[in-house]
Amino acid sequence: PTPLADATKYTINKLFFGMHPGTICETSAILLIIGGIYLILRRVISPIIPAAFIGTVFLFSWILGANPFTAIFSGGLLLGAFFMATDYVTSPTFNWGKLIFGIGCGIITVVIRHFAALPEGVSYSILVMNLLVPHINTVTTPKPFGWEAKKK
């Protein structure tokens, strides 16, 4: 079984350094974090979506009584947060939208992991939030200075 299916068999160190069996996105958390930091430092991606996504999963896993580090280091969360959710075409344009997108992905991931019959929810959460990106962009588009709504 994967670490998400039976988290009691794996320590945080094994999950962090990838000393356990699993698919490519579940094995080495440290390498995924290094790759994500590299993309952020090179300004390829914005840190808002990954920080909001990972932070939300950490917070809600802790609230629900699960080990938040196990929730972050096991499964495809780091791969999804750094490399999938930050896709230019399917992620929001503006910073408030990116924050909403990351928080939404995190909430849906935790709900699927804790209350559904699936051990993983990252890909589904990103797909659901991708459907909402046009609406998020509409709501979070900044208004130009001095802009007023048309009076009817």
List keywords for this structure.
single chain; 152 residues; mainly alpha; elongated
| Beta-strand content estimate | under 5%
SSE run: HHHHHHH
Global morphology: elongated
Q: Major beta sheet, specifics?
A: none
- State the end-to-end distance: 62 Å
SS-based class: mainly alpha
- Give me the Rg, rounded: 17 Å
Share in helix: 55-70%
Q: Mean pLDDT score, rounded? A: 88
Q: How many DSSP-defined strands?
A: 0
Low-confidence stretches: none
Number of helices: 7
Report on this model:
This protein is mainly α and 152 residues long. The chain is 59% helix and 0% strand. The protein is built from 7 helices and no strands. The protein has helices at 12-17, 29-41, 48-63, 68-73, 77-84, 95-115, 122-140. α2 runs parallel beside α5. The N and C termini lie far apart (62 Å). 36% of the residues are buried.
